[in-house]
């Protein structure tokens, strides 16, 4: 795993600028770095050595042709591809997957190469013959890639923080529309990065700059055709074979590999298959203690039971409030694309602890989106009926719920009722996203100063989701949500969280469920094999029952969460208050200060739980303030022209 950065039309300062950009990505690749600069492009790379520790150096350049590559990620099954290349008479300079990708692109072109490979990746390739620069990103969005163009020059990097080191983007200010999106969703759907003029390349896409013109194409998209008619037993057999294959490919590394184990079905199934392929593997769990945590947040007992059943070596690391505060500070200062999913905190801690024992870990990302694992999918059946409920009933229900006795447990009933009310009267495609929103659109509107609120903010925020829903027009409500979660929530929240939590700790996390062949087969299955009556992940549970005891297979889903509301009242209280009430923050003028003060006071009193709202605001203010502090020249966005 690595960090990549680069730009076109390099000038005399190119090496110094590139060095600053790669330094901003040092956590992604602490084992080495490299630079390449010629008259057309500047490429930089930081390396976390996983495969071929002696080889694999980047940027990869062919001096004769001028072809050049910088690559972040892993290509699974690359050894078979290497054999094919050698069989075609193409010599390989080392045994790395970087060299395999480089030669595949030179032989088949960028699109031909990405259609042949499986893996998680983001890369930039300069074609020496045509001068074209191509950026590409993996199918599901496991690895990030950001880009921007100013004054005819294209700049790209693995994280926004590196782009902000380039002279063309040092004074870039926060994007107001993206700020609204963050406060509505907790993450940024579509191409928004949180910064004006900087975009994310979407998953499964290729961007090409040639002769001064930019074009984009999608080389992959999820299956939207009729489902595959298949008996359940046959589906289980095929899923078993494909997941075994995926795990075998993903445990390949020249460094220690382990697995995250929560005790849930996803991580336990991956652990079972990984232990068969590598019996000396270590499963890893963290327990976060403190008075803010009740038993509803602790999954350690379930993880220990799974480890005993599977007979794997199991490390349980005990973490306390000091570790949580350290994670809070690290996330606050290092995020450059805002992400307000509070499970980033425990994810950061588990990655930090795991890095002491391993360089690569297998995780369970993707299973919930492929097999309808979230509670949203069962509720989505009633979305057409909820569409007919007057939106005005939402605030009434929330006020009634707020009058109920307080509750801090994981997914408590008071919290669920309030969240469900956000979707009353909304379009079927939008409801589930509103159920997860930190605050309802009406509450969010009141938070903004009128002259700062972006025009038609809610409609614009939903534009990326509506566009994807239009692609899937005609699908039943649950099928539609499966598609939308796979192409929005998975890449922009779940995989972004995993990338940042792991890469901030120089750890590579792989997702066996997102293996191309396994995922494409899962996508082709009928929904009734995923959501079967009241049973979520039905067919995956059928598979898991071959390896795991009934208590684990039947266990209710439990997210990797922290009691963010309780933490903001206690451990994080002063930090949050200081940041949110700072008049010096670049985005402070966008919001009604009295409204923020009221949220803080109501939350602190215990009358209301505004934890999700305050955490989203805190992350927004931290990210905006981070750039202002580091550069001293960031644009302070005006509040007059909110277009």
Describe the protein in words:
With 643 residues, the protein is of the alpha+beta class. It is 44% helix and 15% strand. Strand 8 and strand 9 form a beta hairpin. Helix 2 crosses helix 3, helix 14 runs antiparallel to helix 15 and helix 19 packs across helix 20. The strands form four sheets. It has a six-stranded antiparallel β-sheet with strand order 2-3-1-9-8-10. Strands 4-5-6-7-11-12 form a six-stranded antiparallel β-sheet. It has a five-stranded parallel β-sheet with strand order 15-14-13-16-17.
Write the topology of this structure.
Elements: E1 2-8, H1 14-23, E2 33-37, E3 41-47, E4 60-61, E5 68-76, H2 78-87, H3 97-116, E6 118-126, E7 133-137, E8 146-150, E9 153-157, H4 160-163, H5 176-185, E10 199-200, E11 205-210, E12 213-218, H6 232-250, E13 257-260, H7 265-277, E14 282-288, H8 300-310, E15 313-319, H9 321-334, H10 344-354, E16 360-362, H11 367-371, H12 375-379, H13 383-387, H14 393-402, H15 413-421, H16 428-435, H17 441-447, H18 457-461, H19 463-471, H20 477-503, E17 508-510, H21 516-524, E18 531-532, E19 535-536, H22 538-544, H23 550-553, H24 564-569, H25 573-580, H26 593-605, H27 611-631
Parallel strand pairs: 13-14, 13-16, 14-15, 16-17
Antiparallel strand pairs: 1-3, 1-9, 2-3, 4-5, 5-6, 6-7, 7-11, 8-9, 8-10, 11-12, 18-19
Helix pairs in contact: 2-3, 6-7, 6-21, 6-22, 7-8, 9-10, 10-20, 14-15, 19-20
């Amino acid at each position: 795993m690595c960090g990549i950065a680069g730009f076109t039309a390099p000038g005399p300062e190119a090496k110094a600028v590139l060095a600053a950009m790669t330094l901003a990505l040092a956590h992604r690749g602490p084992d080495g770095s490299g630079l390449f600069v010629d008259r057309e492009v500047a490429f930089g790379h930081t390396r976390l050595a996983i495969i071929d520790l002696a080889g694999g150096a980047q940027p990869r350049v062919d001096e004769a042709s001028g072809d050049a590559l910088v690559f972040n990620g892993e290509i699974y099954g690359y050894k078979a591809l290497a054999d094919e290349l050698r069989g075609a008479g193409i010599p390989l300079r080392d045994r790395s997957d970087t060299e395999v990708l480089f030669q595949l692109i030179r032989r088949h072109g960028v699109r031909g190469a990405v259609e042949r490979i499986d893996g998680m990746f983001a890369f930039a390739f300069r074609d020496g013959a045509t001068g074209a620069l191509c950026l590409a990103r993996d199918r599901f969005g496991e690895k990030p890639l950001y880009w921007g163009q100013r004054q005819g020059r294209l700049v790209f990097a693995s994280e926004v923080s590196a782009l902000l080191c380039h002279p063309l983007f040092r004074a870039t200010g926060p994007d107001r529309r993206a700020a609204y999106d963050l406060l509505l969703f907790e993450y940024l759907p579509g191409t928004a990065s949180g910064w004006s003029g900087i975009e994310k390349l979407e998953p499964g896409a290729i961007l090409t700059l040639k002769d001064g013109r930019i074009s984009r194409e999608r080389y992959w998209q999820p299956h939207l055709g009729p489902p595959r008619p298949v008996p359940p037993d046959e589906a289980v057999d095929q899923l078993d074979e494909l997941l075994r294959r995926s795990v075998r490919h993903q445990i390949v590394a020249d460094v220690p590999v382990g697995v995250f184990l929560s005790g849930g079905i996803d991580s336990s199934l991956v652990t079972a298959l990984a232990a068969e392929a590598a019996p000396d593997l270590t499963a890893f769990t963290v327990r976060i203690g403190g008075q803010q945590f009740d038993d509803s947040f602790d999954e350690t007992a379930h993880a220990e039971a799974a480890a005993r059943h599977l007979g794997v070596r199991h490390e349980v690391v005990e973490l306390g409030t000091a570790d949580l505060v350290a994670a809070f500070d690290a996330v606050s200062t290092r995020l450059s694309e805002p992400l307000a999913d509070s499970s980033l905190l425990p994810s950061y801690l588990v990655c930090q602890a795991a890095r002491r024992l391993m360089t690569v870990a297998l995780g369970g990302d993707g299973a919930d989106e492929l097999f309808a694992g979230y509670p949203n999918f069962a509720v989505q059946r009633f979305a057409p009926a909820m569409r007919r409920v007057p939106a005005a009933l939402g605030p009434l229900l929330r006020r009634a719920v707020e009058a109920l006795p307080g509750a801090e447990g994981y997914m408590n009933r008071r919290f669920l009722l309030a969240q469900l009310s956000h979707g009353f009267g909304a379009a079927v495609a939008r409801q589930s996203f509103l159920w997860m929103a930190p605050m309802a659109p009406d509450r969010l509107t009141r938070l903004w100063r009128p002259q700062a609120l972006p025009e038609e903010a809610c409609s614009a925020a939903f534009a990326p989701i509506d566009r994807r829903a239009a692609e899937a027009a005609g699908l039943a409500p649950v099928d539609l949500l499966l598609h939308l979660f796979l192409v929005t929530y998975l890449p922009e929240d779940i995989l972004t969280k995993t990338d940042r939590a792991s890469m901030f700790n120089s750890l590579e996390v792989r997702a066996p469920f997102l293996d191309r062949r396994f995922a494409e087969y899962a996508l082709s299955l009928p929904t009734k094999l995923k959501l079967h009556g009241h049973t979520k992940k039905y067919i995956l549970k059928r598979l898991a029952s071959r390896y795991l005891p009934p208590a684990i297979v039947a266990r209710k889903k439990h997210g990797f969460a922290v009691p963010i509301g309780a933490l903001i009242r206690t451990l994080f209280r002063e930090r949050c208050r200081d940041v949110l009430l700072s008049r010096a923050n670049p985005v402070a003028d966008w919001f009604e200060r009295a409204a923020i003060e009221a949220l803080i006071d109501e939350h602190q009193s215990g009358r209301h739980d505004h934890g999700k709202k305050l955490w989203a605001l805190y992350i927004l203010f931290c990210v905006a303030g981070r750039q202002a502090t580091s550069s001293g020249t960031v644009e302070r966005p005006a509040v007059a022209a909110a277009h």
